[in-house]
Amino acid sequence: MAKPEKETIFRDILKVLDKLSEDWEYSGEITPDTYVLADLELESIDMVVLGERLEENYKQSLPFAEYFSELSQRESPDIKISELVDFIYDNLS
Amino acid sequence: MKERATEEIAIIGMACNYPQAPDLNTFWQNIINKVDAITDVPPDRWNKDLFYNPKTADGTKLYSKRGGYLGSPFPFDPARYGVMPLAVEGGEPDQFLVLKIAYDAMADAGYLEKTEDEAKVEFILGRGNYIGVGAMSLIQRTLVIEQTLKIIEKLGISLSEEEFLELRRELLASLPPFRSETAPAVMPNITASRVANRLGFICPNYTIDAACASSLLAVDIASRHLQSGYCDMALAGGVHIFNTVPFLNVFCALGSMSRREIICPFDKKADGLLPGEGVGIVVLKRMKDAQRDGDRIYAVIKGVGSSSDGRAVSVTAPRVEGEMLALSRAYEMAGISPSTVGLIEAHGTATSVGDAVEVEALTRIFGTRVNDAVRNCAMGSVKSMIGHTMPAAGVAGLIKASLAIYYKVLPPTLNCDEPNPKFQLEKTPFYINTETRPWFHGHKDFPRRAGVNAFGFGGVNAHVVLEEYSENGTMNIPPDMRWDTEVFIFCGKSREEMLDRGKRTVQLLEKEPFVNPGDLSYTLAQDMEGSSHRLSIVAESAAALNKKLDYAISRLSDPECKKIKDIKGIYYFSSPLGNYGKIAFLFPGEGSPYPNMMLDLCLNFPEVRRCFEQINRAISTRIKKSKLLPTQFIFPMPLSTKKEFKELERKFWKIDSGLQSVLASNFAMNAILNGISIKPDMIIGHSAGEYVAWMAAGILDQEEFYKRQEMVSNIYTTDNNRVETAMVAVSAGREKIEEILKDVRGKIFVTNDNCPHQVVVVGEIKATAQFTETLGKNKIMHEELPSKEAHHTPLSADYAGPLLRCLSTFSISSPKIPIYSATTASVYPDAPSKILDLMVEYWLKPLEFQKTIKTMYNDGARIFIEVGPGANLTAFVDDTLRGKSYLAVPSNNRRRSGIAQLCHLIGILAAQHVPLSLSYLYKYRTLKEISPGVLQDKQHNKRKKSLLYLPLGLPEIHLQNFKLPEEKKHIEPDPKQFIEEVIPASVKTDRSKEPEASDKNLLSLPDRSQIMQSYLENMQSFLDTQQEVMNSYLKKKSSLKNLHTHKEKLPFIGEVISLIPQKRCRIKRRIDLDEDIFLYDHPFGGDISESNRKLSPLVVLPLTVNVEIMVEAASLLFPDKIPVAVKDIKANRWIAIEDESAPILYIEANILPASPSEATVKIAVMDKKEGPHISEQVPAFESTVVFMTQYPSSVNLEPVDLKADWKSSPHSAREVYEQKFMPHGPSFQVLKSLDRCLEKVIFAHLQSPEENRLFYSLKVPRLLANPMILDACAQLTGYWAQQNLKDGFITFPRGVKNIQFYTGPPLPSEKLTCRMWIKEITFDYVTADLEIIRNDGRLWAKIYGWVQKRFRLPDELYKFWKFPRDFIISRQWDVVKPELSDTLNCFCFKSGYYPDLNNTIWKKSIAYLYLNDHERKIYNGLPANTGRGNEWLAGRMAAKDAIRVLLNKMHGIKVYPADIEISYDTNGKPIPEGDWISGINNPLFLSISHGDEFAVATAALSDKIFGQGVDIQMIEKRSNELEKEAFIKDELKLFKGFNPHERVEWITRFWCAKEAAGKALGYGLIYGPKTMVVTEFNLQTGVITLVLAGKLAEKIQDKKVDVLTLKDGEYIIAFCFYRKELN
User: The complex's ipTM?
Assistant: First the structure.
């Protein structure tokens, strides 16, 4: 399989998020600038599950553990979807 | 301190009017909402153009123009206060302001109706003996006018006696009247006397002046008189409304005014005060009388102290000793220790000396901070919000502090970001309180106390000590609390009824977009009973509600929509869980509380507040001095350092303080749920939350537990032999962790099994380290928690005994509500003895939270409400019950305000039909039900009639109608105009003799006219011409006279949403290209299409039209006046009109309260869904429009340098338009000739367009600002920039400082002259001043500061923009070998984005030059800010440019890019089309490839090929998967021996080759990349040979194709030609 473009990864994330949120909806437009915690109201546990599901989606393991622990060092441990896209893009082989 | 001897005084009534706060409630709301009421000086106080100069050095001008000003004129109803209307006008307005506030104060105290005549009431008012408006106008009328007349006489203007009388009459008429009735009103003491007179007081009334200490001295005296029995009630206060130029000059001269024009008391950057205005009055009684009479008591005055500085160096400098004396006297009288004071309302003038001395005096009295004690005294000054209100300042502070005590809130102070380190506040008990915070108080032995300072200029000091009057500990909530979020519940007995209610609300919001959301929430809540359908919406504003409601209604109009559960706060459930599901309350434990949690809830709900007070009290008895009260770490003081903050935050994880924070916060939320009547069917606690669960279930008695809770925590905290442990939260399941733990040496245990993705582990330090290392190796996420406790593990075994002994002394009952134990994952036993065992066991065994939640679900729990801070447990439940049908919702959420999450909770629970009662939400607020058809306007108009409006500013002597007789008058038309118009260039030489006409001083008018006269005498031959001009002027004048009685329609007043004359109007106007045809003449670019003449470049609403719109809107507010100026015009965003969706403008005009002849106007583009956002975001355009009853008469024209070397313009006006210097179409082509130019000057002739061609159906528009003529400003400035600037010469108007009108707007076809002077050129802007003059010599408009923004466009863009047919933007990419392009006539073009164009209107403008109608739709549908839109556009640009160059080279045809249409065949091959196709004889092949925000395209015109393809790829490593997908094994073998670097490059080349070949063959990669196999390649030439296979081979005859690949930087580009000769 070809390495997906960022656009594709973005759409993949949206699909995974959609499943993850179960019956919760988000009426706003989700853009690369949308924050995963603040806007979509995910909790840190959801982030773990999101990581798992993305790994399943790409059928490869991604260094989420390091990534999230890096995040938790930040002033505000929130990320934009675009950051997640970049992370996946950079780490997908 | 000795026992107090004096009687206490009660404050029983208060009233005030301070900047932006016309009454007491607003004053308090402004304070707690941090409203900054400082503004520029309103024009009616003093003219800042005349008196303000920030760089003033000689003290003649003011260097600061900002302050806190009252709205003026001040509305006053004389009849209501028993004053003769005649006595009001011309007097000192503060008399009437004070009278009104005194009435309000008496009414507030409840004595307005009750007081009998001859009441023993005293009134003492602090008032400065500064010159007031009334006195000043008396001085002007008696002294200044006579002196002025004398000066006029001396100037040699000989006027007849009648003329003199007329002049005097008119000067006098410009001043307020003076009559016998007015006389008393100019005497200052009457300010107090009127109050005594009208309210029937018999004790003395007087004004006192002790400068800034005045009003507290008034309180001092009044208190003493009450104590002595001299009076029974007293009113004391202060007033100050005369911030006149002379008065303020004193402060500028002394340097005590802020040069930064910010008043920031105690801040590091503080550099002085800003003035303020206002009046405040308090009603005082002896305490025992007030108690006897059942008066409402705001606060108790315990002591008042006053003093003078004594002999000091300077009379103006403050002195520490003097201030200390006032303070110590006050505390002595109060008989209390200053260390018990929790709030200081400081004088805080923000002058460096003043603040320093004040802090010093306070510190000496209060003592320095005791070692570890926390700073416990909040400090601030209301001056930071309203400015220094001088004699009214002390009472402003007194009112603020009294309300702070009454409402138990620590009010914030503004503008202090970093306290001045010199004050060393950390060594004092004081901290600057910058946030609104509940005032918690833990001391039983004394109530809340506050001190108020007021120190007067000249060394007079006063201090008041206040104390809380707590009858029975009731909490007073201010009546008008503003909520940041509301919940709106739309109910109905059917879905239709519910939707109908929603739709009616949408209508209401359209009509009244500024409805109070609280009122609306309250109104909707009244109809909840018995409803079977509920839609809940949570929103922060009416506009947000409108948007969400609109969305919800459209979703629910589809009957298939069964539920909405939107994070943003839209909830609807057709099968609600509340109908059958059980409700579980979840009480969170450690790790959930966080700093400042529920702070806003404390301010709004006494029940919440009480829970925090309770915990304070529970422990305060034993608290050591150095220890913190729970609320001191839960609500840390503002401006804590990071270190301090971290230290406080750690307290949340300690067993004792952690438990306290858990108890307070969980019970607080429980109290709210109790308030809205939600009852749990079952309960569970998490860790320390278990204690709450025990109490909520009735196992433990709350009161008993609170009394002894410290016993429980002591068990843990007193053990010194504890093993040191660490705690880790791991993001993995229990099984996995147990597996890992097996291999860890040492004591380590699972403490919480929270959910499938979180387990918490506790262990000895070493063991934990080993554990986390393993986690790291296994890449398992984990986080060390700050907790040092080892609960729920065998490590706590030592505590079991003591805990059992301790708990067994408590009375334990059987649970009243089923409670689940996370130890057993089942329900608690009933027998108290078994419960006790389980309570101890709880701390030794792991928490099986996950399992217990499952049990609860199995037992019927469907609604899980987390009752406490944060949302941790909710996340655990969600993780545990994934896929099941349930609802988990937190009552508090760290990401939202307390109120906001409460609204979400209530919204979703109501929508799930959980039984609840909403009245609690509104219990403490005064909200009113909205009844349909309520019109506030009516009421407003009715009351207005009896009102008088008293100006607060100084009157200005001026002339209105008086005109000098013709022969003595300054000649009109202006002399310079004459020279310009009349004198031919041939006489230029004679001009050397003329004096320069450069003086601007009006006083020299006679001089100037004399010069003119003599000049004209010398120029006999031109007099005839002059006569002619003069005649035409006089003729025209009569026809212009009635301009303002025109009945034509104002074209931009679309739909008036609301209109309150002289107040506000809101208008909607749809911009419609079919109606507003003038817009076609204001395009962003020139002609762009031959085949479709109607295709227009991007059309933009011109700045001048926006000006017209704003003037029209504002004029609705002033039906009797005319617009005379438009100032501070700002274009924040250009409004582009896209062909598809015409924008709807939302225009709002608001009269400036401070200057009622001005209106601010804003234009926003209305989002259909979101409604008008004018209040929420920066409007697209804004300005202030000034109205008067007539045009101003005099003006200084810009001097004309007559000696200069005037040249004519290099272009005629026609050429300016033809050569596209200006892209304007006919109706905007107002330039008729460009006559005279200097280096930075252009004079031009203009002609107004025929207005009947501006709009399609509206033939006689009435334009108030003639935007077409006004547009000449932009055109001349723009043209000048193009001619004279080397770069950045493309300019667009960005704003205008001021447009001043002197006559009515130019009429259709009227001829005028426009003169432009370039005033300033900066990197970003060009600024010009302009004058537009009628042909009769009268000025129409003078424009100051017309600002054009400079754009630096790449040259090719600029050329293309002007002539899109003749130029291209893309660059030819020469990597295509010349021989190829010659033989095949192929051109490759690369087009990318110009980064500086991003997000500007330029980007769209350029796009519109390339795209036709159809393509524009596609482009507008692409996301604008992502790469996709850019790439797509770049592809179109490259393709069209490649084709255009090809057509031009081969056939000499020039084609507009928009005339090339590119469509695709079913295989995705691009097919170019257009009218031009008939002119070519060979087939045209096009191929496009997209890179990262750029694109390349090749176009070939050839009969030698069947197709061609181009592809571009970045050289980068491809994944193994891609390699496997794209290449067969044999191909991959070709890379053998390549180093990794080469391999990456050649894999890219192969891939690129396949893409290009696919395109050339016309099938792309639809049959898969493996249908083209690389068999050979040439390392030198880059030619790659592909052999076709599979399905592709079936379609194509030739089985072999060559692809040329080239490396260009980071990219590989591949070309493939499917040649015929290969056939």
Answer: 0.94
Neighbours of B1224 (CB within 10 A): 21
What token pair was written down for B743?
Answer: 């291999």
**Is B895 in contact with A37 (Cβ distance < 8 A)?**
yes
Distance from CA of A20 to the nearest CA of B (A): 9
Provide the β-strand partners of residue B1064: B1060, B1150
Using DSSP's 3-state secondary structure scheme, residue B1137 falls into: strand
* CB-closest option in B882, B883, B1518 to A3: B1518
| CA distance linking residue B133 with residue B175, whole number of Å | 11
Contact B106, B100 (CB under 8 A): no
Contacts of A82 in chain B (CB under 8 A): none
Tell me the DSSP string of B943-995.
HHTT-EEE--SPP----SS----GGGSPPSS-HHHHHHHH--GGGGGGGGGSP
Sheet with B205-208, edge to edge strand ranges: B205-208, B121-127, B233-240, B278-286, B9-17, B299-308, B460-467, B449-456, B343-345, B377-380, B430-432
Contacts of B1446 (CB under 8 A, 6+ apart): B1385, B1386, B1387, B1484, B1499, B1500, B1501
Of B218, B180, B436, B245, nearest to B306 (Cα)?
A: B218
Indicate which of A6, A18, A23, A43 best probes the interface with B, i.e. most B CBs within 10 Å of its own CB: A43
What is the Cα–Cα distance from B394 to B388, expressed in whole angstroms? Answer: 10
Q: Which residues of A19-52 are buried (b: 16+ CB within 10 A; e: fewer)?
A: ebbeeebbeeebebebebbebbbbbbbbbbbbbb
* Calpha distance B1185→B1150 (Å, rounded): 10
- 10 Å CB burial of residue B960 (0-12, 13-18, 19+) is exposed
As a whole number of Å, the end-to-end CA separation of chain B is: 115
Judged by DSSP in three states, B569 sits in coil
Divide the 1623 residues of chain B into consecutive groups of 10 and give the mean pLDDT of each group: 69 96 94 94 83 79 92 83 81 91 95 78 94 86 86 76 82 81 82 92 94 96 95 96 87 89 95 96 96 94 94 82 95 93 96 93 88 81 96 97 96 95 91 94 86 94 94 78 94 92 89 86 88 94 92 91 92 92 95 93 94 85 66 87 80 87 96 95 95 94 86 71 86 93 92 95 93 91 86 85 88 94 94 92 93 96 96 95 94 94 97 93 90 46 61 77 56 39 33 35 37 37 36 38 48 82 84 84 79 80 92 87 91 76 84 85 72 58 90 76 78 86 88 86 89 81 90 93 86 91 88 91 90 86 92 79 83 63 62 56 80 82 66 84 85 87 82 84 85 80 83 84 83 83 88 89 83 88 88 81 85 83 50
Nearest to A65 among B565, B781, B871 (CB): B781
* Mutate which: B878, B885, B1550, vs A, most A CBs within 10 A: B878
